[in-house]
Amino acid sequence: MSISKGNFITFEGIDGCGKSTQVKKLLETMNSVGKKTILVREPGGTTISEEIREILLHRHLSNISDRTEALLMTGSRAQLTYELIMPNLINGKNIIADRFSDSTLAYQGGGRKLDIDWLINLNHFATYELEPDVTFLVDILPEEASKRKSREKDRIERAGIELQTLVRNTYLELSIRFKERFVVVDGHETIENIHNAIINELKRRQIL
């Protein structure tokens, strides 16, 4: 769906891949060259979405069903899209999202084994059929990502490397299925090399 004057850039990857570092660097770069840009994260970003985030990531709530998890994730996304993403895109601002609809396909689809085509339709409903202009997948081995996590793990992170391996494999499948908008970058590279690869791709697409 195209409703916007601004560009919509999303970042995806397993936990610990380094995407949150990259979104902050890109936000700074885009604003420094006059490309008015705001950053949003998932789940969260609005009052309602942050309340849902607390439920989703609470490490003591281990009995959330896979379907409930998917519906909560997309519910949070629906509010974020309605309240922040679409209005700002329409007004000409660029949006960088630290996770968006592909996270549901990778985590609840690949990781929790829910039907991906059903989740795609659910995402379309939640996002008003809004699609990113480009999605950067920061790809890294789960074993390497696990070494980077120093803080206490949330409910989803506590599922371990087995889940992250399923999620990573699904992301790579999605990068082939949606190859026009997916760009895979090597998360094992240095922060600067990854950032430069992202900048070069955005220039190639005439976003920067």
Structure description:
With 208 residues, this protein is α/β, with parallel strands linked by helices. The chain has a single domain, classed as P-loop containing nucleotide triphosphate hydrolases (Rossmann fold), CATH 3.40.50. The protein is 53% helix and 12% strand. The chain has helices spanning 19-32, 47-57, 66-90, 101-111, 116-126, 142-148, 161-177, 191-204; strands at 8-12, 37-41, 94-98, 134-139, 182-186. It has a five-stranded parallel beta sheet, with helices on both faces. Helix 1 (19-32) crosses helix 8 (191-204) and helix 2 (47-57) packs antiparallel against helix 3 (66-90). The two termini are 21 Å apart.
Tags for this entry?
Rossmann fold; 5-stranded parallel β-sheet; 208 residues; alpha/beta; 53% helix
What CATH calls the topology is: Rossmann fold
Task: Summarize model confidence as the mean pLDDT.
Answer: 91
The top level CATH class name: Alpha Beta
Oligomer: single chain
Q: What's the number of structural domains?
A: 1
Number of helices: 8
**Radius of gyration computed on alpha carbons:** 16 Å
Elements, N to C (H/E): EHEHHEHHEHHEH
SS elements, strand count: 5
Instruction: Using the alpha-carbon principal axes, give the shape.
Output: globular
Point out poorly predicted stretches: none
Helix content: 40-55%
Question: What do we call the CATH homologous superfamily?
Answer: P-loop containing nucleotide triphosphate hydrolases
Structural class designation? alpha/beta
Largest sheet: 5 strands, parallel
CATH architecture label name = 3-Layer(aba) Sandwich
C-alpha end-to-end distance: 21 Å
**In which order are the strands of the major sheet placed?**
2-3-1-4-5
